Write a sequence for this structure.
């Protein structure tokens, strides 16, 4: 993942590389996000023009798929399951506690850029609800103290 601010030329090269694909919009968005950690606002008019779409259409697709970010995520991404099994086992209280401690809302990133919290709708740990994920580490029977400890231990 690149961390610099992309130029129009950089973005256009990523867009052009996906053009041979059928239905290139999603692959273009994925390629840009993989390269920069998010899809910068500057990419939307370039994508729209290249694909002969409106910027509103590109924005609509981006906002429909929750994995696309408009801004870089924090160094640590915490995903808390919001599906029924986890909700019934206290995921609401868990997420409230985590978000309150970090001082952010869903999808938000702490001011220091350290942590982003996202909602997901099933991590496959229904029997160990509530479930969370930090980076690529799954946490069953998650509670606020455990998530806090995991984040404290992360650089």
């Amino acid at each position: 993942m690149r961390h610099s601010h992309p130029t129009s030329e950089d973005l256009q090269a990523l867009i052009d590389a996906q053009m041979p694909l059928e239905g290139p919009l999603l692959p273009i968005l994925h390629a840009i996000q993989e390269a920069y950690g998010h899809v910068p606002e500057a990419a939307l008019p370039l994508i729209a023009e290249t694909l002969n779409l409106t910027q509103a259409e590109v924005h609509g697709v981006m906002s429909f798929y929750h994995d696309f970010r408009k801004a870089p995520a924090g160094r640590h991404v915490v995903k808390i399951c919001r599906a029924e099994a986890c909700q019934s086992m206290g995921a609401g209280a868990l997420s409230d506690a985590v978000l309150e401690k970090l001082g952010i809302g869903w999808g938000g990133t702490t001011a220091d850029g350290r942590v982003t919290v996202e909602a997901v709708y099933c991590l496959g740990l229904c029997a160990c609800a509530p479930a969370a994920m930090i980076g690529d580490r799954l946490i069953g029977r998650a509670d606020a103290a455990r998530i806090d400890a995991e984040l404290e231990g992360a650089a």
